[in-house]
Design goal:
By secondary structure, this protein is mainly alpha-helical. It has 4 helices and 2 strands. It has a two-stranded antiparallel ribbon with strand order 1-2. The longest helix is centred in the C-terminal third of the chain and has 34 residues.
């Protein structure tokens, strides 16, 4: 009893011992080195080539190996080329007439927007002034630099110079402090 043949293309399930593949023929790789190389390039996938390697007729255009399709070109990973329809005849669209604009309503809208713009500009100026005021009220040590009385009130230390000496002494140790 002859051994069954199977297709060597990765992903192909064609086997000569299965009834659904009885109409399929199995072809050896060509002996001619140029044509053999064309087959291997066409397959584009790693293929274990041996004396028993076969390619089924399903991988040839039209399902048969013949003079017109002597190199396999139909594979599970290749997509069939879809032919595009020629474009339909296109007709230019009719030109639209410009809409009539009610001039008084446009003028009113512009005036309203100008009023809103001026109100918003005033609001921006007020907010900028508020920012300047808040920045001047921030608690900064520099503000109390010239007043030993304030330094003593806020820190309990007699003067600004004593506070700075203490800071310089403790500064190297700050990296070890976990906050």
């Amino acid at each position: 009893m002859p051994r069954h043949q199977s297709c060597g293309i990765p992903g192909c399930a064609s086997r000569s011992d299965k009834p659904e593949f009885t109409s399929i023929k199995f072809h050896r790789l060509p002996q001619d080195s140029d044509l053999r190389q064309q087959w291997l390039v066409s397959i584009k996938k790693p293929l274990c080539v041996s004396e028993s390697t076969r390619i089924c007729s399903a991988h040839f255009a039209g399902g048969e190996k013949n003079e017109n399709s002597s190199v396999p070109s139909v594979f599970p990973w290749s997509k069939p080329v879809k032919r595009r329809r020629p474009p339909a005849v296109r007709h230019p669209l009719p030109l639209k007439k410009p809409k009539q604009v009610d001039t008084p309503s446009v003028v009113n809208a512009i005036e309203q927007h100008e009023e809103e713009i001026s109100e918003l500009q005033l609001k921006v100026l007020r907010l900028e002034e508020e920012i300047r005021t808040l920045e001047s009220q921030r608690f900064l040590l520099r503000r109390f630099q010239g007043s030993d009385k304030d330094i003593q009130f806020y820190t309990g230390l007699p003067s600004y110079s004593v506070l700075m000496c203490l800071y310089r002494f403790l500064e190297p140790l700050l990296c070890y402090l976990r906050l």
